[in-house]
Model the fold of this input.
Amino acid sequence: MFSHRKMLNSTIEGEWSKIKKTISPEIAYKAAEVIGSYAAEDMLEFGALNKSEVDRIYVKYRDGLPMASGMKKILPGVDVIYMSTERCGYHNNEVEISPLDAETIEHDENTITWFADPVNARGTTTIGVLRYLRNFIPFEVALLSHVVANRMGIAAVQTQITDFHTDGYMNYGFLSKKINQTTGFLEDALEVIPDFGDKVFGTIGADYPVYLMQESIRNILGTKAGDAELLKGIIMFLLQRHGSDEYTPDRKVKWATRRWIKETILWYVKLRDVRINIDIEQHFTTIMDELEKERHAIKYKKIAYQSSYARDYYITDAGVKVSSATYLPILSELGISKIILKDFDFLVHISADDIHRQVHRYIDT
Done:
């Protein structure tokens, strides 16, 4: 029977929040690395083990690289053996396993086997790897470490391994309670980029189809949440255009300050047929903060201005990928990108104050 527990630590909570919300591969990688270190420390205590009892950790290839890096900081002497896995079968409910070092596995005589995989969704990969290893290794205790584990996956590991006996310990940083039964992806874990490998390595669409990412936004259009997503997409598209080769050499282009961005959006909403049914004045700061501080889709350069400085915003490389793959197709379908492009060359050359005055001049008349 596998005992399991969520690692309770404020640092882990903070690092998990970064992974959950960010679109920056670098930030997601570093956060997963930190959780890997804590997972190693926690498992040693959970399983009442000494470091000397562990000389090898099996890790899911690619997705588990940052976890392995963090675990090695606590257990610098261990070997890391990567297990390449590929989902297959009806509804991806089976897994094909090909270790990167099969010969080492065949000579492993340890009574303890430790497998690290960032995500335990339905338990398919974890169970498959343990069964594979058990063909070669007569282990008596199995250790499992995850960044996130779903209740369904935990239950599967506890109940479906009936072909051999093992005691087990499982730890994880976040407990998921919602899962898509068809795709196997968690519905309450990773935001924006639902696949862990895509998020950590910036390979958007490699494992989780882009059309499903778009569909998640389409499904909420017409709601306040959908309008908030449209506003995020518009902000990123404005910054893509502002930072394009067409405008970067132009010294007459105005800085993309928060005020310029907001006034430009209000121009399109109040004077053009761009419909966003939320209070932009009320929600703009919150959405900008999310894009900047949580998603890391936008950043700013400090530019000296009077006795202080101005913030000139730009979209990050990761932001461009997400914007182009997910948001821009929807803006195009709704005709919003075409409307933005029609007025952009004019707006990019006038100040936020001028945009504000012109908006209100049209409204007042």
Notes: The first strand starts at residue 2 and ends at 6. DSSP finds 14 helices and ten strands in the chain. The chain has a mean pLDDT of 95.
